[in-house]
Structure formats: C-alpha cells, structure tokens
C-alpha cells in the first residue's frame, strides 16, 4: 500500500486530520505567533508538515495536558523549544495507543 505524501494541505484536510473544526485552526493562528501557514495564490491557507506538527502539539497541550491558551503559548515560547523531542515522544506513544485501541476494536468485529 503506498501513501501519497502531500507537501501542502488545505485547512479542511488538516481540520479533519486533527478532529477539529476549521474555525479552531484559524483562531489558533491568531493566538499562537509560531503558527503561520502560507497562503496560495487564491488566498487559501496551505499547511506544511511543520504547521501540522505544531497544531498537534497545541492540541495536545490544550486538550490533553489542560493548558490554557496563554499557558500553551508560554510553554511553546520557552520550554517547548528545549522539550520538543520529549513532547513528540509523548504524542507518539499516545497515538500508538489510539491505533492499538482501533485495531483491537476492528479485531472484535471479525471473530
């Protein structure tokens, strides 16, 4: 099975990937100065993988860790730079756990 790797993703694609609404991503752009997706000729946002990684990190801080917007912003400005690899490892472990739960659920469908 081959997976196509796109360089740019639309806001709707990214919102669907993250399980969020597009307006949340637009709001986060205003709140987090690090998040600045490029815009195409038509003026539509186009997200690169680095933007998606940052959005995943923001979502993790806000939804999983319980940070406020201001707290997450401060974390990303200071500690986020030095703890980026630790955060990525935590996110990877969480994602693998979710994948395992999904696989277990699928296996139960096929006795």
Explain what you see:
- The chain is mainly alpha-helical.
- The protein has a domain of 74 residues: Multidrug-efflux Transporter Regulator, Chain: A, Domain 2 (Orthogonal Bundle).
- It contains six helices and three strands, in the order βααββαααα.
- The protein has a three-stranded antiparallel beta sheet with strand order 1-3-2.
- The mean pLDDT is 86.
Write a brief caption for the model.
This protein has 111 residues and is mainly alpha-helical.
Give structural attributes.
mainly alpha, about 65% helix, Multidrug-efflux Transporter Regulator, Chain: A, Domain 2, 6 helices, about 110 residues, single chain, three-stranded antiparallel sheet
Cα-based radius of gyration, to the nearest Å: 16 Å
Strand order of the largest sheet: 1-3-2
- Relative strand content: 5-15%
Name the CATH class of the domain at 9-82: Mainly Alpha
Secondary structure tally: strands: 3
Could you report the average pLDDT, rounded to the nearest whole number? 86
Strand-and-helix sequence, N→C? EHHEEHHHH
Whole-Å distance between the termini? Answer: 25 Å
Low-confidence segments, ≥5 residues, pLDDT <50? none
Oligomer: single chain
**Largest sheet properties:** 3 strands, antiparallel
Helix content: 55-70%
| Overall spatial form | globular
- What is the CATH third-level topology name of the domain at 9-82? Multidrug-efflux Transporter Regulator, Chain: A, Domain 2
């Amino acid at each position: 099975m081959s997976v196509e790797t796109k360089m740019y993703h639309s806001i709707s694609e990214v919102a669907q990937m993250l399980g969020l609404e597009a307006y949340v991503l637009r709001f986060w752009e205003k709140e987090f100065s690090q998040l600045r997706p490029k815009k195409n000729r038509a003026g539509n946002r186009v997200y690169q993988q680095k933007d998606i990684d940052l959005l995943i990190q923001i979502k993790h801080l806000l939804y999983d860790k319980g940070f406020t917007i201001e707290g997450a912003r401060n974390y990303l400005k200071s500690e986020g730079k030095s703890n980026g690899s630790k955060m990525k490892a935590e996110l990877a472990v969480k994602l693998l756990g979710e994948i395992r739960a999904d696989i277990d659920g699928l296996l139960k469908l096929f006795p």
